Target: Probable periplasmic serine endoprotease DegP-like
Amino acid sequence: MTQATNALALSATAPSQRRIGRLAASFFAVMTFVATAMPLAASARSAPESFADLAEEVTGAVVNISASTTVEARNRTLPQLPPGTPFEDLFEEFFNRRGQGNGESGPPRPPRSSNSLGSGFVIDPSGIVVTNNHVIGDANDISVIFSDGTRLKAEIVGKDSKVDLAVLRVKSDKPLKAVKFGDSDTLRPGDWVMAIGNPFGLGGSVTAGIVSARGRNIESGPYDNYIQTDAAINKGNSGGPLFNMNGEVIGINTAILSPTGGSVGIGFAVPASTAVPIIEQLREFGETRRGWLGVRIQNVDDATAEALSLGSARGALIAGVDEKGPAKPAGLEVGDVIVKFDNKDVKDSRDLPRIVASTPVGKEVDVTIVRKGQEMTKKVTLGRLEDGEKQASLQQPPAEAPTVTRQALGLSMSGMTDELRRRFSLKDDLKGVVITRVDPNSSASDKRIQAGEVIVEVNQEPVTNPADVTKKIDDLKAQGRKSALLLVANPQGEVRFVALSIE
Model:
């Protein structure tokens, strides 16, 4: 029985064993393929065995920046003591002995020097050095210190406070070691990078890490587009280069996010794609020459996109057009959404200032807009950005006779009257429908609409009395629309678009 049972068992399991054998062979073949394939994938993504060769190759081009600013010292005032106090002579003798004077008759204190240390790098063997603007500030004595100890006086070629860049020039009796810029647009989060600089005065310090993110906006200026890295960056690293693994500069270390003052693994660098055009302008002109469109813009949220029939939230919504700017004669209007500029997509409002600023002054460009749901292209010849041209000058349609108060969308509205103009200190030429009250539980309150503001347009059509507003809202409801787009002006006449739900 036992032998029979064993025989039957062998007979029954033999096919299974053969199948197992075939599966094992297949599995072995698959594992052999994976074993041979994995090293290729790993080698493409693995960390270098050492950064030493790369550091040795580029360190000679990285410099320390010493900037000194001479400031006038103030004489300290002798503490006010009651006449005849026994301490009066003591304090006067102490201050005069230290050369600080008493604020009236004591000897003047000599000017004092304020020093700052930072980093930089050579981009031209003839002696062109790049650093951060905040490293040199208003310094009147700048020195560039090389890795071999050589110290050369530097002059300022040009500087830009908006992107925090400065270009210096030193004179050397021999060509200097220089590095080149790389393509920062090809960076991906996770790519290896290496920073070299002068943290806390410790020159020639090398740190390495990865690209943590791209396109960071830290609200430091109008053109924020930082590379974020976890390579250690500390005070003194400012102005130093961030290298890719080819030894190319793909960023300029500029800022850190730190509650302690030291590196916590969050550092920011100006990408090469942003820096290079500015550096070229500073070298050629000694100043920046940014393109200027002459519009005031705001972002497009989902509700605004629906009201404008955009399909999705995208582009930059024009909230104001400068009467003297290039956009006006080109036919751009308030309410237009710029979705493409000079063949570059405008994904949100932050993109447009960077693209416009980097476009040459005087260039004629195609600007693709969406107006009332229809896409069209306008040609604009760019002007030059002027710091004083920040506010748009808008003209509003003439007002009609005021009407009685009405309510809609959580807003109490009234026609324009002299009494309301005085009560809310409204600008003389401001026309439209005055908001007299906002329901605190309404969507309008959530969007920060306030009493005293003025509705200028509803869905890009002018309104002059509350009846206009309610009629247009009723029309939108009849069309099955979910939101109404209001152009709202504050008492000073500055306007913004606000999309309110009408469901």
Summary: The radius of gyration is 33 Å.
